[in-house]
Design a protein that fits this description.
Layout (H helix, E strand, L loop, with lengths): L1 H10 L25 E10 L5 H7 L1 H9 L2 E6 L2 E3 L18 E3 L2 H8 L3 E3 L9 H15 L2 E3 L1 E2 L2 H5 L2 E4 L5 E8 L20 E2 L4 E7 L1 H11 L15 E4 L2 E5 L7 E6 L1 H16 L3 E7 L11 H13 L3 E5 L7 E4 L2 E4 L4 E4 L9 H7 L9 H12 L7 E9 L5 E10 L13 E2 L2 H15 L7 E3 L2 E5 L6
Parallel strand pairs: 1-2, 1-19, 2-5, 3-4, 5-6, 9-15, 11-13, 15-16, 16-18
Antiparallel strand pairs: 1-20, 7-10, 8-9, 11-14, 12-13, 17-18, 20-21, 21-22, 21-24, 23-24
Helix pairs in contact: 2-3, 4-5, 8-9
């Protein structure tokens, strides 16, 4: 009965609906949780084997942080398989590398304290749909709630739920804007079966240039054979060999802008709304590398994160670029634009596929083992310390879902360790931790968020956010 009354009360809170293809406007639905309800969140988990014993030995305080929260979240970005019994094959194309983990990793995540994980990311079908489905079953068997992938689009879109020990129902809605085309789920139509995969937020990318540059592009384009001309350029935009350009007066450098597909956006926001109407607290999460791992927060992501809060999410968690992005407080709820990496076991990636060597663009030395090659790949692509430094964000909530405090515990991923333990997290030593927190403070300041550093922990208080 309690759930029924909550649904009927909150369905009436939707104040306006827009035409099909536009995002609806909503009144925020309040959460219903005890005072001091806590959510711990981390970013990408690229974990190849069980690591709880390692963390217990080197950083038991980190385990306590994860296990003490009412609910703990991360992005599970590998495929868990019994490789000796797996009769599938690597997907082509995949998400950049074919990541594999032992079948015992989902149970290890549960032992570590993780209750809910995202499955919408660009590696979810590294080992095909079959690998995705096996991983999901292993997560189910371990008691880890997961969202973002399924046997149809609506299954991938749907909110999934975790019931805490104290009886709170937590919803998770997961999606990805970065994905390989073959991994996007689709619904059945008539006699055509649905396509398993992930919940995709498709994007339209536009490069912005000065009017003078656009005129140059239009001139070059006019030399194309007429049978390749899809659309004539206008004064403000040019389709140039399949890339969209738009002019912006006074712009000197080339910029980049993204627009979310309105159909995907409408479906995802509806899923968030539905999840909130049938639970006490909702987390929305996205895997977004755009416009690239080195870049700042893309325009679409800020807009979509705020719309997700408006639709009912109590916090929004981003991951994907493998490094930290800033934190925003919007309507009393935290938006973590990227929580970087939690585990990053690149040196233990096995087995490697032949096309990985080609995609990595790192010369293979004669007689080099996969572990040795992975280390050379790591040094080339992820050599700087900031890929290996992040935070665990613990949000303490008010009963209505607004935040009372966010505590940011800095971690580092054993960059200097032997290969077998490189990428395993631990609480950062003071010098590294203060550096990480100062960096995150600087990233968050333009978003109006004030982070203080107190005894090696970053703190955001409800009175300290300016938005």
């Amino acid at each position: 009965m309690r759930a029924f009354h909550r649904i009927s009360r909150h369905v009436l809170a939707a104040v306006a609906f827009c035409p099909l293809g536009a995002a609806p406007a909503y009144a925020q639905i309040a959460a219903s949780v005890p005072a001091d309800f806590t959510v711990a969140a981390v970013g990408d988990m690229i974990q190849t084997r069980p690591i709880v014993p390692i963390i217990e030995g080197q950083s038991p305080e980190l385990l306590k942080i994860l296990q003490d929260a009412d609910v703990t979240f991360g992005n599970y970005e590998t495929t868990a398989l019994d490789f000796s019994a797996f009769d599938g094959h690597p997907e082509a194309p995949n998400g950049g590398s074919t990541i594999f983990s032992e079948k015992t990793v989902p149970a290890d995540l549960k032992a570590m304290g993780f209750d809910i994980v995202s499955r919408a990311n660009n590696h979810v079908t590294d080992w095909g749909v079959k690998g995705m489905q096996i991983s999901n079953r292993l997560l189910d068997d371990a008691g880890v709630t997961h969202a973002g992938s399924g046997d149809s689009l609506m299954a991938a879109r749907a909110g999934r739920f975790y019931d805490t020990a104290a009886g709170q129902r937590v919803g998770l809605v997961s999606m990805a804007s970065t994905f390989v085309p073959s991994s996007r789920a689709e619904d059945p139509l008539g006699e055509v079966r649905g396509r398993p995969g992930l919940s995709a937020l498709r994007l339209k990318r536009t490069l912005t240039v000065s009017p003078e540059r656009l005129a140059e592009l239009a001139q070059i384009r006019s030399g194309r054979p007429y049978d390749l001309m899809e659309r004539q350029p206008t004064q403000t935009d040019v389709d140039f060999f399949g890339v969209q350009f738009r002019s912006v007066a006074g712009q000197q450098r080339t910029g980049i802008s993204f627009k979310a597909d309105p159909r995907d956006e409408l479906q995802i926001l509806s899923a968030i709304r539905q999840a909130k109407q049938t639970s006490d607290y909702v987390i929305a999460t996205i895997h977004a590398h755009e416009p690239g791992n080195y870049a700042e927060i893309p325009d679409f992501l800020m807009d979509f994160a705020r719309k997700s809060i408006d639709a009912g999410a109590d916090q929004f968690i981003g991951h994907g670029p493998h490094q930290l992005r800033g934190i925003e407080i919007y309507k009393g709820r935290p938006i973590f634009y990227s929580l970087g990496n939690f585990s990053f076991m690149l040196n233990d990636m096995r087995p490697l596929t032949p096309d990985f060597y080609e995609m990595a663009a790192v010369p293979q030395q004669p007689g080099q083992t996969p572990a040795e090659y992975s280390e050379s790949f790591r040094k080339t692509w992820f050599g700087e310390p900031y890929w290996w430094e992040s935070v665990v964000a613990v949000t303490r909530n008010n009963p209505d879902g607004t935040f009372a405090e966010v505590r940011l515990y800095p971690i580092e991923l054993n960059l200097a360790a032997a290969d077998r333990n490189k990428g395993v997290p631990r609480l950062a030593p003071p010098a590294v931790g203060n550096k990480v927190l100062a960096h995150l403070r600087d990233l968050s300041a333009p978003l109006g968020t004030v982070i203080t550093i107190e005894n090696g922990v970053g703190v955001i208080r409800s009175g300290g956010a300016r938005r």
